Structures are given as C-alpha cells and as structure tokens.
## 1
Amino acid sequence: MDTKWKNMKCTVSFLAFVLGLTLTVLAAGFALFYTLNQGPRQMWDNLQSDYQQTHSFRSEVRYYLEGYLERYLNPNMELTAGERDRNVLYEIRDGQELLSSNIREGQDLTSRNVVGYNFYLEYRSGKVSLWKDGKELDVYGDGVFRDTWDQWELPGYDNLDTAAFLNYVGDYPVEGTDTAIATPLPGLAPAAESTAAPAETVTPESQAGRSDPWAGCTIRMAVAETPVYYGGTAAYTGSYYNGMYWQADSLRGAHLALSIVGGALLAGIALLVWSLLWRRWLGMAWAAIGRVTGRIWLEFKLLLLLPLLVYLATTLAQLIFARYLSSNWFFFLPLAVWVLVGYANDFVRNRGRLLRQSFCAWAVGCLRGDGLDLPLPKSLQRESFAALIVSLILAAGAALLDLWLLSYMWRYTSFPTLFLPFLLGLLGVVFLVFLVLHWKRQRALAADLGRLSGQIEAVRRGREWTDLPGEESGLRPLALGLRDIDSGLQEAVEARTRSQRMKVELITNVSHDLKTPLTSILSYAELLSQEELPPQARDYVTILNEKALRLKTMVQEVFEVSKAASGELAMHWEDLDLAKLLRQTLADQAEPIAQSGLTFRTELPQDPVPVRADGDRLYRVFQNLIQNALKYALEGSRVYISLTVREKEAVARVQNTSREELPQGVDFTERFVRGDPSRTDGGSGLGLAIAASFTQACGGELEIVTDADLFTAQVRLPLLQAPAAEETAP
C-alpha cells in the first residue's frame, strides 16, 4: 500500500508540474505574442472597460467624420461607413439646410440627450466638440497635433485643418463619383432634399486660393452606448456597417481572452507551487525519467535537439530583426520548453556519463575490447558488429562525398575526368562486400569459440561436452586436445580420490583397531596400580598409565578428525544461543581457568545470538580454543573472549599472548601442527584441527590470525536472523 501511495504521489506531482508549466508558458507566450504583434496601443485598448475609451474607437470616429466631410462636398458619392452604421446617428447640414441624416422623428442631436446614445460629436466652423456621458471632453489640448496615441485625430488643430485632415487620414484626394444619389437605409427617415446645385468635384488642387469649402458645414454624430449587430458586410453597397459593434465586440473578446490567459496563468502558478511543495516526490519522478533518458545515446539526443535549436534561432531572429512572431509560435513554445527541461534534467542526472553513454563511446569500447564480463563469443561478436557499423557509417559518408564530387565534376569538368569518382565508388562497393564477408567469418569464429568456451566450462564442472566445432573449423584440433586433457584430468582426480579414501579408511581402521589393545593396556595398568609394588615400579606404572591415556586421547581425536574429513560425522542440528553456549563453556572451565593464573576478559551480548548448529560439536570447538589458550598463553597475561554480531553472521574471538614465539606462515588448523615443534609437553597437535573440522561441519569457519606473539582464533557462524543493530555488553 505504501509503495502504491508513493508511486501515486510521484505521478500526481509530476503531472501537476507538467500542467502548471504548460499553462504558465502558454499564458506568457500568448501575452508576448499579442504585445509584439498588436502593439502597445492595442494592448492598452484591451485593458479598458469601455470601448469608447479605446484608441480603436477614436480611429473609428475619425473614419466616420472623414466620410461625413466627404459627403458634404460630394452628395452623389456612395454611402460611407458612418452612414451605414445604425449604431450611429448623424446629420449633415449646410447652414440650416439638412443635407443627409439618419435620425428618426423625435430624435434631436442638438440636445445631446438621445436614449441609448452617450457619445456626441459636433463639427462646426472647422472645429470639433465631443461629449461623453454628458461631459465635454478636451479635444485639442495645447492646439498642436503630434500624432500621439492619446490625441484625437480630428480637424481643428493649429497645424491640422479640415483639408489637411482629409489628406492626412485618407492619403488620397477627395473625388466625386457617377453613382446615383445616396439613399437612406431601410427604416430610416429620409434626409431632407437639398435644392442646392450639385457640388463640384473638389480636389486639393482646386482648393488652392479658395476660401474654406466647409465653412458652412455642421456635422452632428451620436454613438450608441451598447452597439448591436445588424448584419450585412461593409463591402456590399446598401448593406449595414457594424464598425461600432465590432469595436465593442472586439473589446469583449479581448477581455474574455485576458480572463482565460489570466486564469491559465494563475492555475499554472498554483500547480507549480503544489508540485514544489511535493518536491521530494517530484524529484523521485525526475530521477526515474533521468534513468530512462540516461540509456539513450548522446548522438540521438543531439539529433532530436537540432530541430528545436533551429526553431529557437528562427524565432529569436524574428523577434530581434522583425519584432514579429508567427501566429502558431506560442503553441510550439510549451513543447520547446519541455524539451529544454528534459535535456536539463538529463544533464543534471547523467552529467557524469553523458559522453560514456554515446554511440562513439560504445563503438570505441567495442573496438578496444571492453566488456570483459561478457562471454568471449559475445565479446567477439560485439567487436565485429561495432566494426561493421562504424565502417558502414564511414562508407555512407564517403558515398555522399563521392556523389557530390560526381555531380560537381559532371557540371564543371570534361567527361574523361568522371572516371575518378566512378572508380572510387566501385572500390567502395568492393570494400563493403569484403567487409560483410569478413564480418560473417568473424561471426563463425565467435560461434566456434563459444563452443570451445562451453567445453572448457564443462571440463571445469566435470561434465561431458559433445558440441565441438565443425570439421572445417580451425579450432577443432584445439577442442579435441582439450577433450583429451579432460580425460586425463578425470583419471588423475579419480586416482587421487581413491588414494585419499584409502588414507581415511586406513586411519579409521587403525584408530578403531588401536582401541582394543589400548583398553587392555589401560585396564592392566589400572590393576598394576592397585598392587603392592616397590616405589620405583609404581613410578613406572604411573608413567605407563599416563602415556596410555594420552595415546587413547590421540586415537580418539584422530578418529574424530577422520570422520569429519570423510563427511561421516554424525550431526544433531538444533537452534542455539551462541552467547549462552560460550558462558556455559567458560563456566565448565572455571576450575582450570582459576588454576592457570591467567585473567579472562569477556565481552558477550546480553541479547540472544541465534545460530543453528550441533551443540556438542560447537561446545567442543570453544572448549579446545580455551584449553589451547590455557596451555600456551604467557603466564600472568590476559585472554580476551568476545562475541559480536555484524551483518548476517556472529563472530566469536579468543585472543591471547603466546608464551613462545609463533612461527610465521604456519597453518595451525592442519593435523599434528604445533606452534613449537620441539615441545614434548603432551600436545597432540589435533586440537585446532578438530575445532576447524567441527566448525566447518556446523556451517561456519575457523580462522587463525597471528600478529607477532598475539594469537587470535576467530569463529564465524551464520545467524538465523540478523538483529536490528549490533549490541555488545561486557
């Protein structure tokens, strides 16, 4: 359950980071795209709450007024945008005469109080007055037009009269048309018919030296507070124009887009914060991803990174030189960010092995013989395969170069010189054929070596191997010779085994046969000791009895060692507390210890140290080690007995300082080996051999270590179950 919960936390934290970073990058990319592509004026417009406060609305008003001024001079021209927009009321007068209008009965623009309309414009005597929500606006400021985004682009400035305004905003001369007189839109009141003669065509050239042609012009205009859609398109003559509605609708769309972008940005930041709060689990997820990407060759990573670098370079060039971004730019931005994040994580997790985990490193390693842990056939096959792949890559590069050379010479040189690239190409094809044939021979050799290696392994395990190299293989004589060696080795092993078995049987039989006469000798010696004998004869009987007992002990020890060596030692397995067994052994040896004059220091754990062994045999091991210390330790010295637990084994040590100088390079666990060969004090040299044999029979190991005069016997036994921590107590 804990593992599932941990995996779920890793997955959730990673998904939160992915989604959070994606939303944040998309929102930032969208904002950057619109800032660059729409400009600061449009971005400022998008932040306004009222569409009549935007720069786009000011441009639309300027556009409408331009049409009205042109209508004043050219009554026969087709309907302008301002005349088609039903969200705008207007009237054009020449003095008191009404030239054109779309106001209904009961509507009066002079009062500036038409229901549903809150913006009013009045053009008179070359000046423009504006009112919004009943308040008059400051149009001209200091009276100088500087073409800044916060100015109204209207006639009436000191440096921008009506004629200059029309040329400035339209960049074309005002011309008449041959179309019919404009008719009012359906549902609108017809404009009062003008009795004046049709106005002549007016151009900037015709205005030279004349008085202001708009001197008697009065234009009033009212804009709806909430424009509605009337249908139609501006391009079709007589249809409705929805310029003001488009201004308001565009602002509503911008507000919706900003709300979505802002919501996405906040959601992305919240998800990023959540993933960072679970950074431990997020780190585990990134580590798992790093392990996966760490197995990919570096060349493939760089190949995948190349399109991203080209994309980023192209985008950066657009941003620096053109200050423009394509419309699909920010859709690819999250992908680019994720690729960069993935490469950064791969670099952090695998920076120490990036170069080693590459095709080049793999090929070089194969060619120089790395991978000694692999079997010989697989190692050879890998080397030949790497050589083939590298050669093919080089051949492909050479072929491309040869094709380029051929195309170049075909265009710029004479025909005889084309023989050189054709010859190079032919040689390359021949080389590839020989390379493939060589690779096949290498594979066959690797297969034969595999069979030979299998035969060697079979010899090592003492099995018979029949899968030999074929008759055509050059390794077959070697395999046959190896099989002959195997036969000879088996015969030698069998002979040695028979000899060893005979030795063990001889020792066992001799030991068994010596028991009967020894028993008789001991019995008669016991009887003689009970008789009335002269003092000198009694001394002889005492010596005879001691030597016979010693001989009996030696025979018994030789018998036990022989049984252990032959694997015939009877074992009684049980669960034991090794610390308790050591305490019991020390208690049984309390009297000899007290008489020895030695000081014993013990360090045994209070908690049980469970092992599985034969209690009697293990008791005999420690008894022999303690008796060895009692016999050969320096008088008045200290003997240290400790038991420690480490990892999954128990280690018991018996350490003492030797009375005699210890020889170097001697295996004290061999039979009949003593520290001082010249001693004749009754030691048989079998005590440590018996201890080593019994320890091995119990599944442990006895190790003797000497350092100058320091003698250490160390018994290692496997634990039934390892304790939580190593605890020892004196």
Note: The CA atoms of residues 652 and 701 lie 11 Å apart.
## 2
Amino acid sequence: MKILNYIVLSLLVASAWVGCNNSESLVLDIDNNSIEIDAAGGTRSIKVSSSDNWVASASVPWVTVTPANGYGCRECRIVIDSALTTEVRTGVVRIAKTENSSEFKEISIRQDGVDYSITLDKPEVSIDNFATLDDRHLDIKVLSNVDFDIKIPDNVTSWVRADDYDLTLDRGVRPREVTIRFNWGINSVPQERIAEIEFVPKEESGITSDMLARNDKLTIRQNAAEEIKRGTREGDSVALLGMARTLEVWSSSWESSGERMENWDNVVLWEEGMDGYVDSLKGRVKYARFYMLSTKEGIPYEVQYLTGAEELQFYSNVNTFQLSLSTGEYICKLEHLKRLTIGAYGLTELHEDFKNLKDLEYLDLGSNNFQTVPDMINPQNFPKLHVFKMPNNQRKLIYDLSNNMATDFGGFYDETAYDGERFGRFPEWLLKWTADEKNGVAGLDTLVLSVNYLQGSIPSFEDDNTVGYYTEQDIINSADTLPRKMLTVKRVMPQLKMFTINLNRLTGELPEWLLYHPSLDWWDPSTLIFTQEGKDELGNLAGFSNQPANLNYYYEVYTKKKFANGVGDDGETDTSGK
C-alpha cells in the first residue's frame, strides 16, 4: 500500500510540472489581463506561467505587485490603494521575461473614483426611556469624505444633543471615520418618540446633498415611559420609585422591601385628622424625603405627579461643590407645595418657573453653590413665605478674599463683590420683607444667611425713606414690651424671630435696628450675628467695629423683658424656674 501511495504522489507532481513547464519554448502567460475595482481598493491574485525568470512592474504608484519577480509558475498579489479623487483612474502591470523583455504580458487596471458619501454604522437605534445620566448617550460611527453639519429638528433638541466632533479630511476624498456622541434625555410621557437626524454637507465645502452617492440619516426611537396616573395613590408610589431611581438614592429600600407605601421610610401619607386633609388626598403622599443622592441633574420629572405633597426634601448629593445645577422645571408644577428643602444639591440657579410655587411657606436652599441670592425670592412671588434659609453656599473655604485667585466659589460673592471703589449692595430686599396684611404678605420670621461671602456692612436704612421708624402704635400693640427708645430706631423686619448672618466677611458698624431689635436676645447674637470670619477683599479682618461685649445695654432699654438666658430684670440670675 505504501508503494502504491508513493506512485500516485509522484504522478501528481509530474503532472503539475508538465502543466506549467510543458516545454522550454512555453510562452509567458497569465490567467487574467484586466482588473476592475472600486474606490476602496484591495488585493487581486494573478497566476503567472513561465519557463523562465520573470519580473513584474506597475506603471502607477498606487499599485504594487508581490512578489515582484519569480521563476516558473507563481501566484502574484496585486495590491491597489484606495482612490484619492472622484475621477476614474487607470494603470498597467507588466510581467516580462527577464532575458527577453520584449516578451511580456500586461494587466490593465481600472479603479472607480470616490463617491461623496456620508455613511452611518447604525442608521437606526432604539433606546430606553430612562437611564442614569452617565449612561444616557449613544455613539454613532460616521464614515464620510464630506465635512458636515448635524441637523436636529427643533422639536427634538429638547431631548437629543450632539457633542462636538472633529472630522479630519487629510486624505483627499478618502472617507475618514469619526465617532459622534449623542446625548439623550428621559422620556417622561407614555408615548414613543422619534428623532430623525440629518447629516448635511457644510455649505463652504461646495458639495450639495444631491451630489452624495449615499447620505444616511439617523433615526432614534425612544421607548415610552411607564404611565403614571396623576392624582392617585398608585401614581404617587410609581413617582416615588422613579425619583429614587433617577436620584440614585443610596438608602432607599422602597422597591425591595415589599412593604406598602404607608410603611416606607421617609414618606408620610395623608390620613384623616391631618391639617389640610380632604377625602381626595387620603392615602396619597403628604411628605417625602430623599437624601444621600448621586445626581447631576435637577429634580426628576416624576416629582410633578406628587400633586398632593405638602412638603418635600432633597439633600446630600455627592460632589456637591463640583456641580452647577438648576432645580429644573418639574418641581415648579407643584403649585400647592408648602415646604421645600433642596440642600447640598449643587444648585446655582432656580428655574424661571420656580416663582409658580406661590404657596411656599418654608424654603431651605442651604449648602448649595449660589453666587447671588436669587432675586425671584421676593414677597411678590412668594407672599406666604415666612422661613427662608440659604446658609453655607460655599464651594470652597477662602479665608482671605484679598488673596484669592479662585472664581465661581459661591457664597453670594457676586452680591457684595468689591468693584474697585466700593462693595456691592447687600441683598436689602430680604431685610425689607415685612408682613403686609393688605397685600397678603406673611413676612419673613426666619432668615438664615450664615457661612457665606457677604462683605461690607449691614444696611442701616438711615437714608432710606421707604423704611420707617417704630411708632407709638407699635408700642401700644406690643403691650408695653417695646421701649420708647424704639421711636428713634428704624423698623426693620420687626416680626423676625430668627436671624443668622455669622461667618460671612462683614465689617463696619452694626446698625441700630439690629442692636435694638425686639428679638435680638432670642437670636443668640454673640454666635449667630456678631461672629464673622476671615478677611474681605480689601484685607480687612471681618468683624464689627461696635460689637458689644454683652447685652447689658440691651436689657437696660428692654426693662420689662424676661430673658431667655435666665437673667432677670435686676440683672441677677433667675433661679425660680418661673
């Protein structure tokens, strides 16, 4: 059997040699004398048959032959580069005998020119209605030899946005690939939405759309949102779960607990007997708290469905000092909300519709990054507001403002920044926010502005005719607790029960209206008023030039006061417990 296999193999080898080398006079031959190829180029194989040595050469630099020489039968690879222009180009490969160059064969090559085109790797994409912010994007690879603009319809720009890109066309009209990132927003409605995005040649390129052999469009289909039934207990629970998901609340166990909503932590439902209760609110959310968050956006869209809520709290976001967020539009739809806390969230602005929350009585925007006190916070927009807190709006601690190169560091710095001649104006309108029954204004009884970068002096209002003095009627109404000295003191926010402005960069004199305010002794002024910190932009050490050592001067005027600190009218400590 081995002998038989050897004989067969020998015959096959002999046959192959005869087929290629039948006689010494065998002429040079090739199996193909023309090649047509598209603009992308590529590799083609040619079989060369010869009884002698041969050499191959190309007439154009965009064609190479491998191997370039040989003997007998051999397969050659002809490599054709991608085209550089839009015109057809031609070339020739010649294969000649080495000893007789007059005996040769030629292969003609014809290559199509490059068509202008804009091609997408994924012309149609489907996306979810929701993802966390870091995952709300899609990348599209675009192969193009035309610089282009991305045309997003006006009705789509609210939820689809393209990042900047750079298409480098440094290879003539050879297409180059660029990856474009499209960012998308959450779909909050229970209907699918579609974006048709066009790629249009730039006008300066001189190329028009009708010159393109291919011009892909991008279609983005976004899934519908889960329907939230407004005004229902079921809708409230879905909204809470959606908000916890969007805010990435670390401590939320609402969904995994399997408990009914009335047993959820940090949620209070309306029940019979509660103030403000009506039958339609029974079992719905009255109060909810979200804390230990991780978000880079405003309050989630689901909040708009909590139409029965009276109080909401959002605070303790991660990396707050790095963020510059707006409240967003959705929280602004809760026109009957009474108490709102958005603290340590990363806010630098309120949405323009925030003024729609006219029922607000309590607003805490502390520990954010505001450069100014939002001027929309005023008695005209919020007539029922009586508690306003904005402490600790500092991105970073800057002890000495005169030796500082940082910008955008919060703390209401822009309010009183030094302009080269004087400090800016203190937000005086807050100190004029008094009760006005005629116009339905409650007036602030709590104002907290501690730990910011306010500079200059606290306004005295001595030259402000819009601020009057205490009157005889005020003394009568106070049941003789208001001393007659107050007839010479400006009547500034007499209803204030709590006022804190410590640890700013304030200097100058304390005004009389503050030193003799009816509630000064309840404010713990030595800690929450008089104590300032650091230096202002002129290098002045913060603090007041007339800061009192104690409140003896005050009690000498208010002779009928019973003191919160246990000191009686005679200056002795009251130990009676009465």
Note: Residues 2-20 form the longest helix (19 residues).
## 3
Amino acid sequence: MKNRLFALLAFILFTAGNVFGAIYYIDDQKGNDQNTGTAPETAWKTVRQVNQFDFKPGDSILFKRGGVWRGGISCKEGAPNNPITYASYGEGKKPVIMGSIPLVKESDWNQVPDRDHIWATCKPSVSKEKIPCEAIRKINWQHYCDGEGKINFKIQKGENGQKEYQLTCLNSGKKASNIQLTLAPFEVISDKAFILRFRAKASIPFPLKNISLMRKNAPWGSLGSQSAAPSEIGTEWKEYEVLFLTSKSDKDGRLSFFLGENFPKGCVFSFVPLEAWHADVQSNGINIDVGNMILIENGKKEKIAGFKRWSIDELKEQADYYYQPETNIVYFYSNVNPAQKYQMIEAALKRHIFAMNAHTVIDGFTMINGAAHGVGGGGVCANDVVIRNSEISWIGGGHLYTRNGRCTRYGNGVEFYGGGIDCLVENNVFSEIYDVAMTIQGKGEVLNENIIWRNNIIHHCEQAYEIWFSEENSEIRNVVFENNTCVDAGICWGHRQRPNKRGTHLLGYGLKTKKIDQIIRNNIFTGTNQCLIWYYNDRLAEIKIDHNVWWDDSMGTGSEKEKGLFSWNANRTQVSYEEYRKKTGNDLHSKVVKPIFADPEHFDYRVINREEIGNAGAKIAD
C-alpha cells in the first residue's frame, strides 16, 4: 500500500509539473521549422530546430512515431519536479534518431588513384559567400597554461599594424593542453564551414597537431571538426587556413590551439589572426570521427560492421575502413564501388544520440548508429534524469585517445560520467554496444546517489553493466541494478575488433571510492565468451549481489565440471560459481538454471517468463 501511494504521489508531481509547460511537435515528413511547432498541424521538421530552441521547464518535445531523424539531440535543462520531456506522439513505430550518415550512392565514393580496391568519400565544397566572425577583430586572444607548461606571452604591433601575439616556450609540458592559445567567446553556427585565416612563424619548426572548435564552458564539447589544417609551422612568415565543419550552434564558442607537448622549449611562436567567417558547405556530413560502418550486403538482411583501421596501408580486407581526421575522409576497401556491393552503408559519427541534461525525461525512442554514447552526460547534467522505453543499438566505436601508439575506442548505451543523482533507467533494450550497455564511472571526487537500473534487456553487448571510479573521496549511495535480463556478453561486432576484449556481464575497474552502497538483484545473466563477472579490484564482496539467476553452457549441471567464469582481482584469476559464492558471500540465494523451454542457440531473450525461470520452467543445476 505504501509503495502504491508513493507511485501515485510521484505521478501527480510529474503530471502537475508539466501542466503549465508547452508541447512542441516534430514531424519529419510534413513539418516545417518556420512553423510554431505547438500543434501537430504546425509541427517543426528537424533536430536542428529542436537543439536551437530555448525550452522551459515543464515543456514536452514530441517526435512523430514512424519518423526518422539524423543527428544528435542536446537536451535542455528542466527544473525539480518540472522536467523537460522528450517523447513521441501518434501511432506506429518509435521515432528513430540516427547518429549516422548514409553513403549508399555511387557518387559518394571515388576510387583512389594507384590504390587497388581503395575508395574514398568526397571532399566538402565551401561557398564563397562569407558570414564574418566579428570576434576575430574585437576580442584579444588569450593564453592558458597548466601542468608543467610555461610561456612568456606578449601582444605587439605587427608589420602592417595588425596585432601580433608572441608566445615563447619556457617549458612544453607533457600534454598538448598544457599550453593553449584561445579565442572566446564567439557564436558558432551549426552545419556550416567555419574558416580561420592567419599568418604565423616559429623560431623552431614544430607540428600543429590540435586546433579545436569547442564550447568555452561546461559542458565542454566539440562544436565541429577539422576538415583542413596546417600540419607544421615553419620559420618564415606564411599564411595558413584552418577549416571546421560545424556540428552544433553555440554562442559560447571557443577556438583553441593546443600547443603543449609539441611546442619546443625556447621556441618563439608568432601569430597574426587575419579573418574568420562561416560559409555554407556542401558535404556528405562527415565532420567528426567515423567510429563504425554499419553495412547490409545486397541480397542479405543481416547487419555487419566494417572493421575500423588506423591507416590507409592497413586496409587489406573487404569492409576494412579508415577515417582520416585531418580531412574528414573515409577510405574503404572494396573490390567494387561500395554502393554497388551494399544496400545499406551507414557511417556512425562520434556524437551522442542524446546528450542528457538535468531534470529531463527521455521516453520511447529508437537510438541507432552512433559512435559515442546512446545517452551520455554526467555531473550537473545527470541530476534527476529518466531514460525509459527505448531501443539503443549499434552504438560506439569512436576514437577516444591514442596513448603509447595504441588507439582506444569507446561508446556506451547509457553513461553517467562524473556523478549522477536521482536517475532512473528502465524498460530499455540494448544491443550491439561497443563497450557497455549501462555504466556509472568517472575521475575526480564525485557522488552517485539514487540511481536505479531496472527491467532492461541487454543482449550482444561487450558488457551489460560497468562501474569504476578513480578518486578515494567518491561515494556510491543506493545504486540498484535489478530485474534486468543480460544475454550473450562479448558476442557482438565490437568484441571482434577490440584489442582489449572484455566480454562480461558485470565489469569493474578501479574502485577507490570510500563507500560502495550498490545492490545487484533479481537479474538473469546468461551466456558469455569470457566471464560472467569480471572485476579488476578486490571489492566485489562489498557489493550486495543476490537473488539472481545465472546460466551458461559451460556451468555445471550435474556431472559436468563448471568453468571458472567469475573473477575479481588484479591477477584475473577465474573461479567457479561455488568458489565465488564462498569467497564473496554473494548470490547465496541465487540459482543456476538451464531453461528447458529454450534452445540455447536461439535463446529468445524478449519472451522470457521470469516466474518460470525462477520456478517450474527451470531445471536447477545439481
């Protein structure tokens, strides 16, 4: 009775909070961004209009069922008991938000001269009409140093009376971010080319590897990617141009030269900004890393993934591909024009399908083909967030960083990074995720409190649920993972491509938190190609894990000897289910079962009757 009253009160609060909010409609077929958006008959059309509009707490943004949109959605912040809701209207299939670009026309590809079987996407074409960026004249460039980076900085008059910025490197630092030259704030316009023209020279030649167009303040993030940029600054004055393809609009833009580790000690870098502008651009839409290529061959139905490589020379097999960040060009190995071989070619871009914000509800979407996260965010943006009734698939694979010559990729279904409070993730289906379906993680001193993951189905992802924190003063309070069905960990496209294969249902890296109040209960875990639990620390016994159902073909069902599928220490020793229970005290009331109504090779995770598994429909192992 008490739970029912609580649920009723929560419903009243939710609906009351939205009574005074406006409702906006988005229709991909009949909508028009010049409309008011406040009725189905006057619906908007694009994701771009949704991202640019200033919604208020209590507003609802409804996408028409059956519609398909490309791009990512940047959620606006609601208020306590008055969230902003992203949902659907009408009848039919859930609205689809795709994070990919189609490349299925033969004209999308050109054969690379002198390279057998290598095809390349087309370069963008920029209009000559300019929209000047006045900030280049009105705002002074600033310098920033941290870590071991140190410079002398001065502004002087150049040869033609123009401002000349002079940076003398006293110590390079260990990271590119240790020394920066920045211009901010200024307005960035989405879906344009942004061009900066400047003159520069250096007393010692050095590579200019990282120029970023991004937000000035939190939440920091890219506003576009380089399509052309200088590779090195020489010793003579020379005019340079850098071009970005913008992905978002923002009045709080920042242009940053990350010099740091590449800036030689004793070098004098002289920089004269000339002009900056936006322009219309015709392109295939690839303006950021392509983390996956999702393909369907002619005459077939199965989706397959292209194999991401890290140079043109590595392209050796059909569907190998390489994304070149300096030019935003994709190179693809194929014995014919890729559009002749595949009926579907989707280039998944490194951006979230939904970038979460505080006090928001995301309800009832299909999120596919994104190379970052399905829903991503954290810290102040992960306060009072609800994500439910959605299907999230073919996510991840984007380039995260390169360290010691090794490239690392990433991408999760739902991620709360750097903290989260009062969040609910329920009734979703996750599949084909490069990393993990659901996770809380982060660096720094963070708090994760009242986060509930329940009634979700996770199948064919590298991992189902992950947790890690690197700061000893972090805390985990009342985090619950319950009533979820987790099937076939590590049996997915990402596992085949990963250099660090970690197929498991429950994954934990470093846990330096001072408190772990986490419950994992009433879940089904079945099928893995590596481990059922895999923790890189010795704190598994502190997590309350019980009343679950475990099943894997290699687990004992009588006379068979159980394979070690449980691991929770730095030595990565794998032990049996019984050893795991004895040493941790976990899962004392759980069951090992083999469902008699399912063919293991065709396990239907969508129609599992949980009561049958727990009772008559399951054969409990001896």
Note: The two ends are 39 Å apart (CA to CA).
